[in-house]
Amino acid sequence: MKKNKLPSPHDYTNASDYFKDFMSINKNINANFSFRFIGNKLKWPSGYIPDVIAHRKVFTLTRAVQFADHYKMREVDKERMTWFALVESENEDVKAFFQKKLTIMAKDLHNPSITLNDPDLYNTIASIVDFLILKKRRMTTSEILKELRLSYLTEEKVKRALSEIEKNKYLVWDSNGKLIETNASFTFDDKDEETYSNLKLHREPTLNFLNFIESPCAPAIYNTGVLQIRKGQFDLVAKQILLLRNWLVEVSEDNIRTATENDQHRLMQYDLNLFSITDLH
After folding, report:
1. Segment 114-139, tens digit of pLDDT
2. 124: which residues sit within 8 A by CB, 6+ positions away?
3. Sign of CA dihedral 21, 25, 28, 34
4. What's the pTM value of the predicted model, to 2 decimals?
């Protein structure tokens, strides 16, 4: 029997839309897939998912965890499923908080022309978009090369990235070249943990860290070392790293939203990696 296909929860802002697509996708794969079928697998009432889709019932934290555990979702995906429950919380403060988080993330755009087949372009665009958001104004290729401290940037890469940014309206400017709207953010997460298909996106940021080692500047903090992780502990450790990453991203997004002309922000690269240096299977 074919495995059920899971849409990425990061492409959704609520449980209703997620389960609507979840049912539709798997119905196309397996004609026998139904609300009763999935209800039996999850030990849920057969009417629960259609009620969630129709907004007749609230998607609860318990159901979110059960669904994620049943399908062995990654911790970062499991966390997103719980947000779908928290956004329907009876506590108005909790509800408002997660509505805000999901609304912000719903603005993310992933242009189909920027694919994993072109990681250099993706990295360059992501870096320049973040830099121009910081500067809040249009900048020339020469200005960007002068101020943006990235070892992998070239004149050709910057020109191509600026062309893509303009063409796809990732950033919108007024007639004086001041930033008025941001329509893009970029992810380096790997949706397929088994193939590490996004791993090559990290090559250039790693080279940039090597460049920092040769020419360090303050302020900075850097840590590396070798750890012993017991079999079965990796998911727990990875979850804590992801929680720290998510907190850092939230700090950055809040700074962007609340920035004033008098603020002094700087772009900083972070690296939170954990990988095996022994080939034990």
Report:
1. 555 677 788 888 889 989 988 889 99
2. 152, 153, 157, 158, 160, 161
3. negative
4. 0.59
